[in-house]
Each structure stands twice: as structure tokens, then as C-alpha cells.
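Dear H.,

Thanks for agreeing to be a second pair of eyes. The structure we're designing against is below in C-alpha cell form, covering all 448 positions.
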């Protein structure tokens, strides 16, 4: 390449050029015409490069539960970067990884005692699915290879996660996916559940669909069922009353492992440390991510029962029990962030706070009912979804415009999936901020 070529290339790729970054889950061409840029964050607010404050209505991406740039977490990460930047966890370890694992096991419902760390929700899901399959192998049930997910489920973007997931757009371009996967029906029916606060009365019976799937494939072929206790990404669909208990019973009856994907629901989103705690149903494997570090450093993982963990702890002492792991499993920065984040959650009682403000949040969300564009509202914990009536022939167009206008003209960040708006503010949100968020959204939706 000539010097002139180099110069032309570096000018094309100047720091202000938006071309090189292929953005995830974003209409890139539209974004780059009118970018939504964020330069800084503190507590409940993002700040644009020109200093405009934008209220974070979504805890980033369902992850910054403690709010932004919280000093104890920032300090812990800084200290850790100086003390120990990296240590392998294949065959070696750093002490705090064990401390965080213990704290997470203590936070999880009784019976979930062992933590395997990954770096994201997607990796957590793949880890959970692999452990489920391997568990059946090491316990002499190698024929149990089927995985059962659910329609409208989101389990990240790995091949395992999209296979058990139930979002058509996330699956349709990626070939045959994992074999042997089946899906439960989703639990949403607008006619029967519209404008429900909390867990819908209707839909618990849909758990019995698992019996139909068992009858079709035979229990001896099924390894695990994976569900989100509250499906977040497809629009805040809380489990109907009795649904999770029934799933648990059917799984127990047939020797099938139950996996809760708690990537969104763990760490206070539903007013408890985990959704399992809220619903009084303990899975065999639970995934987590996001809130574990309040979004500051990537981390995810799974928490498993003694029974599953102990099944692997056999054979010669020098032999590796599970051939799985990531270079960055229990990365020191993530571990430090995790320990500091849990301390903030405990010290500020943020899970209890979410429970305390749940009714206020629900009332504020439901104040949007009656607007002509609003088709349904669902709310549970500090999470709400507002379904809009899609534009004729242009699904997703209205939702996208609402999100754009919210950011550029109304100083709030909302999340949209197609024509559903989702709100999940940091758990430090004040009642006055809840009111401001929904009043602003009401004004904005009134423009349509
Ligand atoms: C339930 C659930 N599982 C998995 C994931 C994937 O997490 P990540 O984006 O960190 O890979 C998400 C992300 O939103 C999620 O909501």
C-alpha cells in the first residue's frame, strides 16, 4: 500500500468515522445517519458528548442495577487492575474467585451451591446446556440429549442459546442449529392477559405442554428444560401463576433437569436476589450475568446443585472433571467488580427497594393505558413493557421512532424490540424519577 493510500485510509477511518464498527442488534445505516452517542454516565443518567443528561430507563441493557459509575465498584476495579490484571483459572486461581463463588451460592436459593464462571449471558447459557448434557452422560443416562426451550425465549446468541431460544429473527439465518431441540409454547395471550400487573392468572396450565413433549419424545431422551422465569427480551412476560411450580413437578417426575435463565431476573430486577426466590421454585441450574457486576465488567455463569456438581467429582484425582471453560473465566477485574457490586446491593438494600417500589412503578406504567397507540402493558418487579399497535405494513417502525425521539428529544433512554417498549431502570431509581420517566413517555406517545 502506498503512503497516499495509507493517508486516504486513515482519513476515511478518522476517529469520527462511524463506518468500521458493525453494531450489534442495530439498524446500522439508520443509526449512523443520526447517532445516539453516550459519552459518560453517573447514577441514573447518561450524558451525551455535548453534556445533555438522558435518564437511563433501561439500566443500560438490563444490567446496571446499581446505577452508573458507582464509586465503590469503580474503586474496586481500579485497585484490582493495579494488583492483579489477569491470572489463569485453568489449573491456577486467584483467591477472590472463590469468595465471589461462595457469595453467589449463598445468594442463590438453598440447594444451588457451585458456580461456574463465564463472561456473558450467552456463555452462561451454553455452559448450562453443556453441563446438563454432560451430567446425564456421567450418570449413565447418555440417551438424554434433547433440550427443550420455549417460544419467545431469549437465551443469548450462541448456537446453543439460539437453538433453545424462540425468536424467529435470531434463528432463521443460522442453519440447522442444535439437533434434538423442541419448544414449549409461550405463555402470552393478549385476550386473556391484557394489562396484567405481575403474574397473569391465565396460562399456568401451559406448563402441562411439557407432558405432551415428553409423550412425543420419551423422557429417556430429554436432558433439560430451559426457561426464563420472566421472559425479558420479548417483552416482559412474567410466568403465569403456578406455571414454574408445575414445570418443576413435571421435570422431577421424568428425571429432566430444570434450568432457569436468570440473566435478567437475578440481582433484584423482580425484587429478590433471584426469580427462583420470588416464585419459590428452585431449578437444578441457574444462569446469571448482567447484574452480577452491574454491567461494569463482562461476567456470566451458572450456579448448580450439589447433585450435579458432585456427579462429576469422581475418577482419578489428577483427571479434569469437566472439559469446559474460558480464558477469562473468573477474570480478576470481573470478580472484583462482582464482589463490590454485591456489597452495594446489600449495603443499600437495593433488592428490597425494588420490592418496595414495585406497586408505584406498576401504577406509573399503567397510567399509559388508554393512549391510542398502546395495545398492552405488562409489569413485574421494576420491569415494564408497553406494546404499541404496529404501523400498517411496517412492523417495528413505530417502536424505532419512539426510541429515537425518546433519546434525541425527550432525554430518556428506552429499549424497543419491534413495537414493544421495555423499561427496567437501575434499582436506585427514586419514586419521583419513576414518575418523570412515565410522564415523559406518556407525552411522547401522545405525539403519535
Ligand atoms: C435471559 C437472557 N439470557 C441470555 C442473555 C444473553 O446475555 P449476553 O448478551 O450477555 O450474552 C440475555 C441478554 O439479554 C438474556 O436476557
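And this is the sequence the design step returned. I haven't edited it by hand at all.
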Amino acid at each position: 500500500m502506498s503512503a497516499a493510500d495509507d493517508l486516504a485510509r486513515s482519513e476515511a477511518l478518522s476517529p469520527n468515522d462511524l463506518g468500521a464498527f458493525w453494531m450489534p442488534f442495530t439498524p446500522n445505516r439508520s443509526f449512523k445517519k443520526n447517532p445516539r452517542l453516550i459519552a459518560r454516565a453517573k447514577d441514573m443518567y447518561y450524558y451525551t458528548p455535548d453534556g445533555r443528561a438522558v435518564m437511563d430507563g433501561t439500566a443500560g441493557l438490563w444490567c446496571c442495577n446499581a446505577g452508573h459509575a458507582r464509586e465503590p465498584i469503580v474503586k474496586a476495579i481500579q485497585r484490582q487492575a493495579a494488583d492483579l490484571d489477569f491470572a489463569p483459572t485453568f489449573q491456577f486461581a486467584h483467591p477472590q474467585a472463590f469468595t465471589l463463588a461462595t457469595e453467589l451460592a449463598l445468594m442463590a436459593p438453598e440447594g444451588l451451591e457451585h458456580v461456574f464462571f463465564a463472561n456473558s449471558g450467552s456463555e452462561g447459557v451454553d455452559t448450562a446446556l453443556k453441563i446438563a448434557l454432560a451430567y446425564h452422560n456421567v450418570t449413565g443416562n447418555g440417551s438424554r440429549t434433547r433440550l427443550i426451550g420455549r417460544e419467545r425465549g431469549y437465551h443469548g446468541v450462541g448456537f446453543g442459546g439460539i437453538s433453545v431460544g424462540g425468536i424467529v429473527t435470531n434463528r432463521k439465518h443460522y442453519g440447522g442449529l442444535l439437533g434434538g431441540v423442541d419448544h414449549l409454547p409461550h405463555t402470552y395471550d393478549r385476550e386473556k392477559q391484557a394489562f396484567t400487573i405481575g403474574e397473569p392468572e391465565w396460562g399456568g396450565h401451559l406448563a402441562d405442554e411439557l407432558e405432551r413433549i415428553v409423550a412425543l419424545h420419551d423422557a429417556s431422551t430429554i436432558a433439560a428444560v430451559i426457561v426464563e422465569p420472566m421472559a425479558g427480551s420479548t417483552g416482559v412476560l412474567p410466568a403465569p401463576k403456578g406455571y414454574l411450580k408445575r414445570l418443576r413437578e413435571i421435570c422431577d417426575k421424568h428425571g429432566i433437569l430444570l434450568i432457569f435463565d436468570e440473566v435478567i431476573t437475578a440481582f433484584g430486577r423482580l425484587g429478590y436476589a433471584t426469580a427462583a426466590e420470588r416464585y419459590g421454585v428452585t431449578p437444578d441450574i441457574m444462569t446469571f450475568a448482567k447484574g452480577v457486576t452491574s454491567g461494569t465488567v463482562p461476567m456470566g455463569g451458572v450456579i448448580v446443585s450439589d447433585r450435579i456438581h458432585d456427579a462429576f467429582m469422581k475418577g482419578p484425582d489428577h483427571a479434569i472433571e469437566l472439559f469446559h471453560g474460558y480464558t477469562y473465566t473468573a477474570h480478576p477485574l470481573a470478580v472484583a467488580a462482582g464482589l463490590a457490586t454485591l456489597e452495594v446491593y446489600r449495603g443499600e438494600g437495593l433488592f428490597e427497594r425494588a420490592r418496595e417500589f414495585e406497586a408505584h412503578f406498576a401504577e406509573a406504567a399503567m397510567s399509559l393505558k388508554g393512549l391510542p397507540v398502546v395495545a398492552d402493558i405488562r409489569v413485574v418487579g421494576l420491569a415494564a413493557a408497553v406494546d404499541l399497535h404496529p404501523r400498517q405494513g411496517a412492523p417495528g417502525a413505530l417502536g424505532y421512532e419512539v426510541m429515537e425521539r425518546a433519546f434525541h428529544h425527550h432525554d430518556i433512554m428506552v429499549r424497543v424490540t419491534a413495537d414493544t417498549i421495555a423499561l427496567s431502570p437501575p434499582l436506585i431509581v427514586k419514586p419521583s424519577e419513576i414518575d418523570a420517566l412515565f410522564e415523559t413517555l406518556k407525552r411522547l406517545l401522545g405525539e403519535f
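Two observations from my side: Residues 121-138 form the longest helix (18 residues). The chain is about 40% helix and 15% strand.

Warmly,
E.
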